[in-house]
Design brief:
Blueprint: H1 22-33, H2 41-62, H3 73-92, H4 99-115, H5 136-156, H6 159-184, H7 189-193, H8 197-207, H9 224-229, H10 238-242, H11 256-264, E1 269-270, E2 273-274, H12 278-288, H13 291-295
Helix pairs in contact: 2-6, 3-6, 5-6, 6-8
């Protein structure tokens, strides 16, 4: 049952209709009622970016006369992109009966994906930032990982290499958080027209479609790994993926009926994902079993 009609600012959006189902409305009400009164979204954001930016500044302040070491940012960036894809596909959307990994699945598949759908993916208040930004413990893990890999790079190469590796990892994490935030704000000029952000906004909102959420559009920064692995809803090359913006011209035709069906009908949706028919599952399997035929080259 719909409880809202499209607003003037979004009624022409190609991404969503801003029509919330009764199921989504009830989940949102329950989730918000369980948020601790002590939670402060501004503080959450301030600590995340404050610590992250401080770490980047500290690394920068210790780099001296670096030259070729700056090139290490490229493999670290690509490594981060594929780690992001792997974690999203195989941890956030796959229930593993190990405490920490199970908690990630619960928070993401059973909460985040119930709170936001491709029909209504936006938030209204800073208290809702709790379900958008990662908890501080993830920042801690990224920081420890950055220091560890940075130290390893310093042993293999030199100190400059270590600082650049650590700094790039933290920068990538903050980029991820920023892009994700831009996916869940209300429609505006910036998110619609800013290159890369408009691309990932469309890419991620489609990921929130119940029909394809478990298998497609796993990247949340730049859809490089999705292009390479064939898990994008688009059939085009790498450059086309990166600069796709809001366009759905290249969306895979075989996925369109599934996306359209689950956008308006949540009768086959559970907190663990969609209950696909045998035909729908076969369509998805056929596509994912032949990723090279769908990923394209560069354009």
């Amino acid at each position: 049952m719909s409880i809202a009609s499209p607003s003037a600012s979004t009624e022409n959006s190609p991404l969503y209709n801003r029509v919330m189902t009764e199921r989504q409305r009830k989940f949102r009400e329950k989730y918000k009622s369980n948020i601790s009164p002590l939670y402060n979204g501004i503080l959450h954001l301030a600590v995340t970016y404050g610590v992250g930016i401080a770490g980047i500044w500290w690394c920068l302040s210790h780099i001296e006369n670096a030259r070729w070491e700056w090139l290490l940012m490229i493999p670290v960036f690509l490594f981060g992109n594929f780690v992001e894809w792997f974690m999203h596909m195989h941890v956030m959307h796959r229930r593993i009966d190990v405490y920490a990994l199970r908690a990630i699945y619960e928070r993401h598949t059973r909460e985040h994906h119930q709170y936001f759908t491709d029909a209504e993916p936006t938030m209204d208040t800073t208290r809702e930032w709790r379900i958008v930004f990662f908890p501080w413990r993830v920042l801690t893990v990224v920081g420890i990982g950055g220091v560890g890999l940075g130290y390893l790079a310093s042993l293999i190469f030199n100190a400059n290499a270590g600082f650049i590796v650590a700094m790039t990892m933290m920068g990538y994490y903050l980029t991820y958080e920023t892009f994700h935030y831009c996916c869940h704000v209300h429609e505006n000029w910036f998110v619609r027209h800013m290159p890369f952000i408009n691309t990932i906004r469309r890419h991620h909102i489609l990921h929130h479609n119940f029909g394809i959420m478990m298998k497609y559009n796993m990247n949340l920064s730049f859809p490089i790994a999705d292009w390479f692995m064939g898990t994008s809803d688009l059939r085009r090359g790498l450059i086309g993926h990166l600069f796709n913006g809001y366009s759905e011209k290249h969306q895979k035709e075989e996925l369109k009926p599934i996306i359209a069906r689950f956008r308006i009908d949540d009768s086959r949706v559970t907190t663990d994902g969609p209950q696909l028919t045998a035909q729908e599952q076969q369509v998805i399997n056929n596509d994912l079993d032949n990723p090279r035929s769908t990923a394209g080259a560069m354009a």
